[in-house]
Amino acid sequence: MEVMERTSQSLYSGVQRGKKEGYIYLTATDLNLTQDYLSDSSAHYWIQADTIHLIGSLSLPGRNLMLNARIISSDGNVSISTSGAPVPSDQDFVQEPKADPGMKAIKNGDRGGDGMDGLDGGAGMSGGHMVLAAERFDLKGELRLVANGSNGGRGQDGGDGMDGRRGEDGRDAEKHWFYANDYSTPGGNGGDGGNGGHAGHSGNGGDAGCIFVGYVVSSGEHRITMENEVGIAGAPTLPGKAGAGAPGGIGGYKLETVTVGRTSSVTRVSNKRDAGGKDGMDGKSGLIATNAANGEPAKSTVVQIQYDQFYGSKLSKTELYKEFSPIDLETALGASLERQMLTLHKAGLAYLTGSEEKLEESASLLDWLQRTTPDEAWFDVVRALSDYSAFQGSMLDASIQWLALRNKSIILLSQLGQGLDYFSHPWNWTPLMPLDKYQDLGGNLITAAQQAETLYHEYVKAENDQRGRVKILKDTISIAVNRINDLDDQRQKSIIERERLESEADKLYESILSNEKHLQKVAEEFVQALRKKLALDSLKATFDLVVNGVALVTNVTPAITALKTGGAIASAVSNYWNTGKSIVIDDPFKNTKTVEKEKKKKEAELSKSIKNVTTVVSSGLAVLKDGAELYDLIGQMNAARDSFGYRSSMLTMSREKFENMLKPIYKQMPEEKVEGYRKAFNQYLNVVEEYQGKIQSVKAKHLEEAKWFAEMEQRRADQERIRQAMGDEVDAGLPLFHTYILDLYNGLKLALTDFLYQEYQAYRYMVLSKDFFPFIRDSHVAELARIHADMTIKLKNALNASENPVQPFKNVTFILNEASFPEQFEALRDHRTAFFPLTLENKLIREKIAGKAHMMVSDCHIQLPGARHSAGSIHIEYTHSGHSTFLDSYGERFDFVHNKSHGFFEYEVTPSEDAGDAGEPKEYIGNLSGGAVGDGNSRIMPGLLSIWSIEVPLEDRRGFTLNEGVDLSQVTKIVMTLAGKAEAYTTPKAPTGKLSAFAAKKPISEAFADHEMFGLPGNGTEVVQADSVVIEL
User: Fold this and answer.
1) Are residues 264 and 355 in the same domain?
2) Under 8 Å between Cβ of 807 and 982
3) Residue 882 near residue 907 (C-beta atoms within 8 A)
4) What totals of helices (H) and strands (E) does the chain contain, helices first?
5) Is residue 369 within 8 Å of residue 409, measured between CB atoms?
6) Does residue 637 sit in the same domain as residue 668?
7) Tell me, what's the pLDDT at 222?
8) 12 pLDDT tier (thresholds 50, 70, 90)
9) Which residue, among 991, 835, 886, 841, has the nearest Cα to 428 in the 3D structure?
10) Residues 821 and 674 in one domain
11) What is the DSSP string of 539-559?
């Protein structure tokens, strides 16, 4: 079968337009539908968009019109007519009701002319069929749908036959004396009458068109009125009358010879006549025409449908398929893959914007997608059918693409439920990469996206050039292969990173359990009061609720703000659970045996990502109402479960709100003990929050890996499908080719946008800006490249200049005592990781760093007094957790999440028998190495305020011995000295613009090396420097 296809970019609003087998396909994200789009009156129209906004009166006489969208809207009264066009005037003989009569007979005996046959009236045009399918109709006025058949044209009556002409009379005989006689002649025959013309047939009335309106959510469908009347048959016609036959002519008088006498005779004219002519015969009347018929009636209905009808599930009222048999209702209700991909792109752009309003919009779009895309079980049911429809066959052909699309939408929905940004990061995520890495990554991503954009533009311009488009498609496949390899590489790296995060989370959980024991010891009175207030049975249940029931967030992110009970995100998360659908990728392009074998392998590989995606979705979040009392917590959780689905468990609130909720309990405590209890509980909460952050990061990695895997599978399936179609030598302008190139182009643009987003986050980190990435829009690569260039300059400026002078701090020393951190010291002695929170929640820390804003760390020295009884080295490993808290120059708090910073500090110690200032043994410190965190020039530094971990390992990663001779049993304090950079506070007024962050143009001290891991700090003999700011905890 020959396929004619044309795909181009519409002049009106970026609408994809293609023509195939009599149908024009319009696909768009948001379409303002005007008459301009319906300019080809010879074609039917199939229009798919996320939203279709109807403008004015639309007319498509006698053609079918299918509108399929999530929302169909209007601003006022509008109409759509597919009624048949009236019969042309030259086919409707109301003004000329009778055909011409026959010609008159001119000569005697001529036959009368036949009447003209009446001309047939034109048949009425049938009304075109209409299907409008949407989740809802947002109509501000009447929507009038008209699909009438037009009336049939009247035929002509037959023309009358004319009468015949009388036959000519014969000539009388004549006697002549001098020449020959004239003899008589017979009469001529009479002319026959002419036949009447046949009656013309009147046209049948046009059939009424079917009108089917399907909606899911009741909204404005009551404003829809429908009219689909049949066309009336043309009026009956009459045949022409017959012409009368004319009488024959009379014969002339004859000559006769009579005898006169016996021998004489005389010739004379007698009174006898010659033979007369025959009378003409009457003509025949014209034939009667069969009466025309009215058009056939058609059904019309407005009916509530379900979401799964948009991917081919049967209507519950199966009789509708028979009643609307002129329409392929199954196909008409189906949302196209191309349109759903555009909707996913729209949801992503709304998600990227990050405002509460846009996040709600994104949630609604993602909810729509996960409801209107099939899962693996649906495809299994279709495959099991002995015979399936053409529509079902087309769905099976693209099953991988459909499942990957659904997977992506659910993953994004899961991220929203977790308060993550579009790229699976916390909203305050900042990658602290070296500056040259930002430049290199940006250039590589721009090059890849630019290649894809160039190919896409060349493809669109190569209309009607089959060979040119095939070449472009082959080039696109090469780029897609590179993209698949990049995705696989990213996924493998993410798996390694996730395993590391899981290990760190396990260590933190051990620390939480240790802190719970400590909290019970030092603040038993407080914990018991908390348990009673929560009406819980045990202390374990109390701690479990805090760790697993309340998600503590230092910053209320846009997603968390948008997570309102009953809001779009809450509804979407709940809807996902109510569907009970799974996420599986399948491959229909193999034989049955191969499919089953590879399917099991893929399902096994996907099982982890599926499980974790569904687990993440299950922990839908909610925000407590302002002013909620602590004892309402259980009730609030139950309410959240009702709103988000039965698996929901986590509630999110800020640390400030949680602290306020604890005030009623603090009031029950003895006043002199409150601060001690508060300090102990906040120390516990710091570790809990860090643990929850790690768990969120683990979940984010699972989501990201699942998203990458879905894209990899989709692109592999696309390649196979494209190659197969190219091998069949089909037209390279078909929509599947267009979508293939466009989707790859958008995917590479998103990868570039992800990088730009992270680059901007690094800038926010440097200048402490509250503004989120402002550049998100569906931009061309050139625009994105300009953004990268601008951000590179801003990052450099942020490192090399500041509105406030950069202030180095050399020695901020934390003395961590065993009495305050018994569980941590126990872990340290077991050579496990010990976690120490240095946070603003600690009042003493807040007082000691007063006057210093935006504190970032370049060096970390850690000493363990009393760890050696003989001379030797001590090797200590430390880690900055990857959560930095800052106060800006106006005293406002900022929190950022980033990669952890891991380093070591190693020094040699020589014990002395001389006593120190506090009566402790004096130690001589020398040959320091390590201790570098970041230099602020080539690498952005982490913040001072965070969770720091310390470990004294017995061997390195290769099994070589470390810390031989080190004895931690007598270590009762840890001396942790930090150096870095800070800003001074400014006048207490709102800033007029973004502040540039600080950065030193040269290292703080010549003794400090720039390298992160192997810097060589200067030597010293004192554990605590004389000029240190000492914070003893």
Assistant:
1) no
2) yes
3) no
4) 21, 27
5) yes
6) yes
7) 95
8) very low
9) 886
10) no
11) HHHHHHIIIIIEEEESS--HH
Torsion sign across C-alpha atoms 551, 553, 557, 563: positive
Output the six-digit token pair for 992.
Answer: 């007029």
Q: Is 723 helix (H, G, I), strand (E, B) or coil?
A: helix
- Confidence band, pLDDT 50/70/90 cuts, at residue 1019: very low
Instruction: Supply 956's token pair.
Output: 């390195």
Q: CA 630, 636, 641, 643: dihedral to nearest 10 degrees?
A: -150
- Is 899 within 8 Å of 826 (Cβ atoms)? no
Q: How far apart are the first and last CA of the chain?
A: 83
Residue among 856, 902, 908, 900 at smallest CA distance from 877: 902
Q: For 921, list phi and psi in degrees, rounded to 5.
A: -60, 140
Residue 991 reports pLDDT greater than 50: no
On whether residue 616 sits in a domain, the answer given is yes
User: Are residues 751 and 882 both part of a single domain?
Assistant: no
Q: What is the pLDDT of residue 621?
A: 47
Does 858 share its domain with 731? no
**Highest mean pLDDT: which range of 81-90, 711-720, 862-871:** 81-90
How far apart (Å, rounded) are the C-alpha atoms in residues 422 and 413?
10
Sign of CA dihedral 430, 433, 438, 444: negative
**One domain for residues 284 and 269:** no
Q: Which of 38-47, 83-92, 347-356, 732-741 has the lowest mean pLDDT?
A: 732-741
Pick from 105-119, 712-726, 927-941 the range whose average pLDDT is largest.
105-119
Three-state secondary-structure class, residue 745: helix
Range of the domain at 401: 337-799
pLDDT tens-digit series, residues 204-250: 999 999 999 999 999 999 999 999 999 999 999 999 999 999 999 89
Q: Which of 898, 808, 813, 893 is nearest to 856 (CA)?
A: 808
Question: How many domains does the chain divide into?
Answer: 4
233 located within any domain: yes
Share of residues in the chain with pLDDT > 90 (%)? 29
Q: Which of 64-68, 99-103, 626-630, 755-759 has maximum average pLDDT?
A: 64-68
Q: Is 530 buried (19+), middle (13-18) or exposed (0-12) by CB count in 10 A?
A: buried
Report pLDDT digits (tens) over 770-797. Answer: 776 665 566 778 878 888 888 887 877 7
Residues 6+ apart with CB under 8 A from 1004: 808, 810, 858, 859, 979, 980, 981
Q: What is the mean pLDDT of residues 120-131?
A: 96
Torsion (CA) 640, 641, 645, 650 in degrees, nearest 10: 70
Residue 1 is assigned to a structural domain of this protein: no
Report whether 33 contacts 47 (CB < 8 A).
yes
Using the predicted structure, report yes or no on whether residue 365 has a pLDDT greater than 70.
yes
The alpha helices in 915-1002, defined as continuous H runs, are none
pTM metric for this prediction: 0.74
Q: Which residue has the higher pLDDT, 192 or 437?
A: 192
- Cα–Cα distance measured from residue 951 to residue 966, given in angstroms and rounded to the nearest whole number: 13
The per-residue pLDDT for 628 is: 54
DSSP characters over 836-871: EEE-TTSHHHHHHTTTEEEEEEEEEEEE-TTSBSSS
- pLDDT reported for residue 466: 63
- pLDDT at site 588: 36
Of 799, 819, 851, the residue that ends a domain is 799
The predicted pLDDT at position 609 comes to: 45
Asked whether residue 715 is assigned to any structural domain, the reply reads: yes
Q: Last residue of some domain: 775, 799, 823?
A: 799
Which token pair is 968?
């931690």
Instruction: Centre a 10 Å sphere on the Cβ of residue 302 and count the other Cβ atoms it contains.
Output: 17
Give me the long-range contacts of 1-9 (CB less than 8 A, separation at least 24).
3/730, 3/731, 3/734, 4/731, 5/731, 5/733, 5/734, 5/735, 6/463, 6/464, 6/733, 7/460, 7/463, 7/733, 7/734, 7/735, 7/738, 8/460, 8/463, 9/460
